[in-house]
Amino acid sequence: MTASSVSSVRAKAPDTAATAPGPGQPRRRPLPGFHGRMMAPGILVLAAVSVLPFVAVVAMSFSRVHLLGGLGLEGVGLDNWGRLFADPDMAWAWARTAAYFVLTVGGEMVLGTLLAVCLWRLRRGRNAALSLMLLPMFVAPVIVGLLGRFLTDSTFGLYSWLLRQVGYHGDIMGDRTSAFAAVTLMDIWEWTPLIALIALAGLTSVPASVLEAAALDGAGMVRTLRYIVLPSITPVLLVALLIRSMDALRYFDIIWNTTGGGPADATKVASVRLYETAFRFFDFGYAAVTGLLMLAVTTVVARFFVRLLERKELPR
Questions:
Q1: pLDDT exceeds 80 at position 206
Q2: Which of 29, 11, 33 is nearest to 21 (CA)?
Q3: Coil, strand, or helix at residue 73?
Q4: Hey, is 252 helix, strand or coil?
Q5: How far apart (Å, rounded) are the C-alpha atoms in residues 152 and 250?
Q6: What is the spatial distance between Cα 175 and Cα 267, in angstroms, rounded to a whole number?
Q7: Which of 24, 152, 165, 261 could form a disulfide with 268 if both were Cys (CB 3.0 to 4.6 A apart)?
Q8: CA distance 245 to 271
Q9: pLDDT digits (tens, 9 = 90+) for 4-33
Q10: pLDDT tens-digit map of 172-203
Q11: Residues 300, 307: Cα–Cα separation, whole Å
């Protein structure tokens, strides 16, 4: 390379010392590049459909909403929030929500894991059995509620007829305990296949060499499942638990289409109470407070399971 070519290259090279900001000069933020400009419309749409409604709900929670003569907000301060903590019906609704959450999510996790293990050990016909097992998950919750109400009808319902054969002559949806058990079992029937599918995906990733080593060491099936298989799929089960927990806390469809919250408010969980407050009594301010509380509880529960998942993945 000649001296003239070296000087030309030096002339074309940018002077970083001249362009870099001095000690007292503010650093310039880079302008959004191509990716930022392409994401801008999506971010604006997301803000329009999530942030703006959230701000509106927060404003409604501190107001009394008037619908006659146009939408109007009358500020009432913390009155709606005070009603929330002094309302015994809302307290019982949250107690029923907690019971419904524990029974449905717990039952789905146990049954889904057992079904996944059975399918995992199945050698022939696994695809056919998996297809049949997943059918309830593809049924709309509204249809599940209508089907459940039809099957539990005291006059012509199949389940009512079967219970009469064993000596039970009561009305399933007319008794508080049996109605709550019925809507719980409907939810478990619909969403257990989802847990089984997620757990089965985790089971297929367990190394075969580890299972062969356990078999050579004389470990039985129970010990293999307890000490090798279940610890290996714990992160996957936590993901399934997170998904179902966020959905079970605000579940509405099955309960509303079967009992409507009855009998005697036995199945009136927080989501049903929220719907009645907003669209039956048109108390949108109090309904906004209930909705924000449901959002906060769902966020706390989701964050709890995310922390558990992070702790399980740290040793890996």
A1: yes
A2: 29
A3: strand
A4: coil
A5: 24
A6: 11
A7: 261
A8: 14
A9: 554 554 444 444 444 555 555 556 666 567
A10: 998 999 999 999 999 999 999 999 999 999 88
A11: 11
